[in-house]
Amino acid sequence: MTIDEKALTDHEDDYVIVVSDADYTAAAQRALDELGVTYAELREQASRGDFTSSKAHALWVSIGGTVDL
């Protein structure tokens, strides 16, 4: 992963790391692969409000609507 930018927040111990779109998309795809679902399947689970696992739900909260995979 290439870190494009690292910035301090209002709190001295917190950092915001900004990654490229390509790196973000690749990370999202790896997470989907680890769960064994496609983005379309995860989106369908979200539309029903019925996720196959807490990890699937957490992934949707993290990436839902932010990628086109």
In a nutshell, what does this entry contain?
The protein has 69 residues and is an alpha+beta fold. The chain has helices at 21-35, 39-48, 54-63, and strands at residues 3-8, 15-19.
Description:
This protein is of the alpha+beta class and 69 residues long. It is built from three helices and two strands; from the N terminus they run E-E-H-H-H. A two-stranded antiparallel ribbon has the order 1-2. Helix 1 packs antiparallel against helix 3.
Q: What is the H-and-E element order?
A: EEHHH
Strand sequence of the main sheet, in spatial order? 1-2
Q: How many beta-strand segments?
A: 2
Structural class: alpha+beta
Portion of residues in beta strands equals: 15-25%
Architecture blueprint of SSEs:
Elements: E1 3-8, E2 15-19, H1 21-35, H2 39-48, H3 54-63
Antiparallel strand pairs: 1-2
Helix pairs in contact: 1-3
Sum up the structure in keywords.
two-stranded antiparallel sheet; globular; 69 residues; alpha+beta; 51% helix
